[in-house]
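P.,

For your records, the input lines for the assembly:
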Amino acid sequence: MSKQFGILAFVVLTAAMAALPFGIGEYGHGVLVGMMSYIVLASAWALFSGPTRYVSLATVAFFGIGAYTVAVLADHLPFGAILVVAGVIGLGVALLVGMATLRLAGVYFVIFSFGLAELVRQLITWFETSVTHTLGRYIFVEITTVQIYWLLLGLAVITLALRWWIEQSRLGLAVHAIGDDETVARHAGVNVTGVKLALFAVSSVLITLAGAIQAPRWTYVEPSIVFNPTISFITLVMALLGGPGRMWGPVAGAVPLYFLFEWIATRFPDQNAVILGLVFVAIVFLVPGGLLSLIDKWRARGSGEQSHA
Amino acid sequence: MDFTRRGLVAATAVCALTLTSFSGMAAAQDRTSIRIGYAVSKTGVNAAGANTTTIPNYELWAQDVEAAGGLTLPDGSKLPLEIIAYDDRSATEDLVRSVERLARQDEVDFILAPWGTGFNLAVAPLFARFGYPQLAGTSVVPNIDGLSDRWPNSFWLLGSSEAYAHSLVDVLKPAVDNGALNGKVAMISIADGFGIELSSGAREAFTDAGLDLVMDKTYPLGTQDFATLLQEAEGSGADIFVAYSYPGDTFAITAQAKLASYNPKVFHPGVGTNFPVYAPMNDGKVEGVMSLGGIDANSPAIQDYLARHAEILGKAPDSWASPVIYASLQMLQQAIERKGLDREAVSAELASGTFDTILGSLSLEDNQLKDLWYIGQWQNGNFVGISPTDKAGVADAVIPKPDWN
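Structure tokens returned:
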């Protein structure tokens, strides 16, 4: 009953989101693209990092790989085919990197994932400078902003549905066990490396696709543009604000923060960096468990007396 | 099952925020001002360049217009400026969205260009689609000729990489021919858009001119130690040292060359040489250093510009793109004075008209400004233009460059 209602609500919400571009102007479309992009990024990030508690700063590595794939192939393949290729490349890199590094734990993984973005960027730069002798690439793909938004919405639906399915399945149990204590999980018979690798790969492919879908909006791409580390940080902060451990947490973090950033950038362009820094600090101090954990707290307070009695 | 309640909360949040953010922002306009908008990188990786070159000149121009009582329209009336400035945080997606916002939400009359080659290319299709003229004063682009066909109201004012290379060759070639230089060139370049474009233009131009490129190396972004590269350049026996570097690298290259007493007959580092801080940073001992850009230090209009920039903004402008950006704003101002606020007419006027600016009388060819200083040299405390060698106000190149001390 509750499950059916949930699915129904999800479908209605998706339809409402799909209808949003009608009746708003081109700036509105741009805002929707940006918002949906961060919903996908934060949700995809939390798909791996939420339950396993591996903090990854590799978001922009995959995001950039997606964008760069489009830049390289834009003149040679239809857009749909490019997306498939981008997904496959993202998957390949994720598997390669995942197998090599998911043994790292804690801060070592954070540092590695941050370095990965820089590594990919330097590799592409090296290739372009030494082999093709050019760096910037033009992207001329005929696609409207609204179409990009719908593609991202589809990707967001897939991301959330995957998360939901994982939480329902035995895989979800295994993942949470890893997040709680990796050693215990291993002794309980969980294929720890396999589970982590699978999640990391799925999450990375989704992020790669998000970069690929958005790339046609930029016309011109070079490594310093698409491998902007700020994207990794913002994604992380959004997911943390909402609470990466829950299916809707990243969405609940991405939407308000996105509009806050947009508002700050337009109203206080000169104080942008300062205000953002203060916001980050406030999040860490005031809502360390994520916004959605506050709901649990209120609910616990409401029902607390009964349960204690 | 927590799914439903959380889902609903999130759904409500999404809808509420999305809807409220679009409503009631754009008010009806009655004509009491001319709205000018721009989005530049006030923060992030591009902030250093944007804050040195683009933003000060936008602010200076706005103050000048205000002091003059506003922008003049064809009927002689004046309207004050209303400036709307956004920060793109050095992210293309933010820049694209800001321009969409300026065009569709704020409905500004004109949009000023962002900072940097890549960023100007990124918004060119938007400016074209929304019908705004784009005066790109910080964009050095390759294959510049195709751009104005694709985006007819885009104007590229800082030249092409080929033009810089050929102008440098024009300075070097006579000195090689009369034996002052041995014709060997050592070139290093940063492995980034700027370095790659300029070095590939230079490679071709040097070869065509019969110069001998004895060293040709790239270095990655963020390099700080150039001792090895400079040693190799010195060891190569080249009289001509050329670096296509960014400001940080330029400062490091210069400091390390001085430290090692490496004093080639032609010393040409990249961007940053044209910055006002370059001379004081090196105790003023920069006589004879060449680089991109330059100004005509004897021009009264330029002297006046330098003085007002320093007085009003509290710092001197750079001697490359800064005057070009200010001149581009003067062009826009005069085009508006002739054609009013009709953007199509203003674009047509920019393409075909002649304008009186701090760089003298300017007109564009194929949407490009070709009459500008490509190569400059520090002489008596000014970074003066030495090429094109036939341009009015040109200074003679000093070759060989004097000793560092």
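Two observations worth noting. Chain A has 14 helices and two strands. Residues 304-309 of chain A have pLDDT under 50 and may be disordered.

Regards
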